[in-house]
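Fold Annotation — chain and its backbone

Fields — amino acid sequence, structure tokens

___
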Amino acid sequence: MPDERLRQMLDLLRREFGLRHFRPGQEEIIRAVLDGRDTLAVLPTGGGKSLTYQLPSLVLPGLTVVVSPLIALIRDQFEKLRAQGIETVRVDSSLTGTEKEEALTLLEQGSQKIVLITPEGATGPAFKKRIADQKVSLLVIDEAHCVSEWGHDFRPSYLALGALAEDLGRPTVLALTATAPPLVREEIVKRLGLREPAIVVRPVARPNLRFEVKQCMTEDVKRRELVQYLRRLRRPGIVYCSTVKDVEELGALCKIARIPAEIYHGRLTKAERDHAHKRFMSSGKRIVMIATSAFGLGVDKPDIRYVLHYQVPGSLEAYVQEAGRAGRDGLPARCILLWDPRDIDVQRHFLSEGPATRSQIKKVVEGLSAWTKDGRAVDASTLAMATEVGVTRTKAILEGLRDADLVAETDGEFSLSREIDVNEAVKLLSRRNEERKTTDRRRLESIIHYANNTEECRMMHIRRYFEDGEPTPCGHCDVCEPKLRRRRRRSKGRRGGPGSERDEEE
């Protein structure tokens, strides 16, 4: 970036966002975007990913399209951008028909700088038609790890975003995520069709986080440890559980222990989730949020003092992503895993319910074949209903077929691009799914290895997994601190003369 343009960026940073300096990685990403380079940016949670598209959007001509996976995340970004006076619209399923039409009309008029939209909405025919005459300068894929079948939060609809870039006239593409090991980074580049991208990777875990693992060999011990932590640690904090049942039970336990807490999971009503979310996010509220992984993306609360995992998640990526919600204000925060080896059974059960089965693949391929033979295309929802496979898995199967150049899509409807042997197609996709299961099992092993580690600095262990530079000991995790104390005692013993070391050991 020329010096003049950098000065312009710094001026905008101060004037529009009230900030004096870029955070690590931000300037490099913004330089690449303004130079028209596709970019993959891996910044830790709280690392300032949003600014890397918000600031360029003020300089670039035309529209910036931001694809984001959660409505709560979209709503939060929309409110912040509008408060800053940046012309922004959002398009998502929480809007009424009238509100959505008003948003699309504003886009057609060309008066907006940013549109925030879900992947399902962005890849739908209605949106693409309404912005067909607009110049799109930047396509942003937020939470880009969702594009990867090996990532911890795979979303089938993300697989269609590579084609969306072409439909929008192939603008510069910026892919953003907080956690992506090399395998996932390769998948993101491939799926989105990034062209010779600039890849910016910052350390996945911030130095103010203290990582620790507490061994708990029975459920009773684990619950006692949890209550002790929740009474002792400064709030607000988050407790993550693997199941709805555990969230409900721990919520009840907090009531008995008189610990102020809210619960959050996918089976609550929208009103209940919104109430819990609002109460936790309110400034000055010192409460605990007990939740499944449904609570997370878009939780931009800077003063979370700890994230405690009651059960082990399915991968080290998922763990780091969730733990990274602590201490976004830069102050010390704790990331605690209560480790009971039996909790792995829950994750193994989730793995057994993973990718589509051979039977489901066969049903979808046969159904699509029948529609194609009738000279008709079919949308994913209709095909899912006809085959009784489920919309999410049907979409995943269709995207697998598209990836193999076996299907074509027009305006959200699919058809076979050529006559295929059903059994061969089933074999092809089944082989891919088996590879995915194998990778998922390896990812589960990564978090088991982390939990059982008692020798290597936690931060080094995490950074080594992500191939994140040349890591050095953090000095304050539960592995480093005892080593430092022992070294200090030995040093003190040597200074104290004969008998001092013996006295310390005794």
Observations:
- The longest helix spans residues 422-452.
- Residues 358-420 form a domain with the Arc Repressor Mutant, subunit A fold (CATH 1.10.10.10).
- The chain has three domains: 3-201, 209-349+442-488, 358-420.
- Residues 499-506 have pLDDT under 50 and may be disordered.
